[in-house]
Design brief:
By secondary structure, the chain is of the alpha/beta class. The protein has a single domain, classed as Alpha-Beta Barrel (TIM Barrel), CATH 3.20.20.150. 44% of the residues lie in helices and 17% in strands. It contains nine helices and ten strands. The strands form two sheets. An eight-stranded parallel beta barrel has the order 1-2-3-4-5-6-7-10, surrounded by four helices.
């Protein structure tokens, strides 16, 4: 695959048909579909049946696009008292949608950040839940991938991510690697690629600079050319999808940044 794609989260302020129009107009062929209640409500998997899945698949295909992954961000927190009951139905429905759309993976986050004294207990509890979801995903024909590290979660730092991933079966749960969160977590991209190896099942692209994860590729300190080469040498077969987010930004601002990011990354990905 190795396509440069775009997440619909970048245009979460637009309705899905318009977001697909804008993404396709910029020459992308792959998307991550945001399946995130309230934050990116492009679809509600709980309200969809097989017919709805087919209609959505047809709409996406009509735009000349295919879906790399569904991104089913946590609704509340798997490590909160209401989390599992609230989220498991959403995540299972998202996995069924991902399978129907031909996604190779579904990415999710590993629960909310916890105090150090409670971290191990909560991490073990969430890992147990995710293990069950990994088996559900396998049976549905989709790879489950946990985005770790990710700011504000149980796996905020790279060390926490490694400890958390050690609790999970590598055959059932892979990694969704976000370049900006790797840097924010205290690691370098070469370090992450070396440690994660073939466990990386999907990639989100953003740059990083001065502690900010909301940086357009080309404006930060990440060497994306080196990163692409290392991933390909490791045998990565998925896509590299931009997931651009900026506080209080308009759709027009995000489109401009998407154009700038694509202009920077496309030549590097071809080399």
């Amino acid at each position: 695959m190795h396509a440069l794609g775009c997440s619909t989260i970048t245009f979460r302020m637009l309705d899905l048909p318009t977001a697909l129009d804008w993404i396709a107009a910029e020459g992308f062929q792959a998307i991550d579909l945001g399946v995130i209640a309230k934050f990116c409500p492009h679809v509600n998997p709980l309200d969809m049946d097989a017919g709805d899945h087919r209609r959505l698949a047809d709409e996406i295909a009509a735009h000349g696009l295919r879906v790399s992954t569904c991104n089913a961000w946590s609704l509340t927190a798997l490590n909160g008292p209401e989390g599992p009951e609230t989220e498991l139905g959403w995540l299972r429905a998202s996995l069924r949608l991902a399978a129907a759309l031909g996604c190779y993976a579904l990415s999710m986050q590993p629960g909310r950040k916890a105090d150090e004294a409670q971290w191990l207990e909560q991490a073990r509890a969430v890992a147990g839940i995710i293990a069950g979801l990994g088996a559900y995903a396998r049976d549905a024909g989709v790879q489950l991938a946990v985005e770790a590290p990710h700011k504000g979660t149980l796996a905020e730092t790279f060390d926490q991510a490694l400890a958390f991933l050690e609790m999970l079966n590598t055959d059932l749960v892979g990694v969704a690697l976000d370049t900006s969160h790797i840097r924010n977590g205290g690691a370098t991209l070469p370090q992450a690629v070396s440690v994660y190896g073939e466990r990386v099942k999907h990639v989100h692209l953003r740059d990083f600079k001065d502690g900010s994860i909301s940086v357009t590729p080309g404006d930060g300190d990440i060497d994306f050319g080196e990163f692409f080469r290392l991933m390909q040498q490791r045998g990565y077969t998925g896509d590299f999808n931009l997931e651009l987010e900026y506080r209080d930004a308009t759709a027009e601002h995000n489109r401009t940044q998407l154009q700038r990011a694509a202009a920077h990354l496309r030549p590097l990905l071809k080399n």
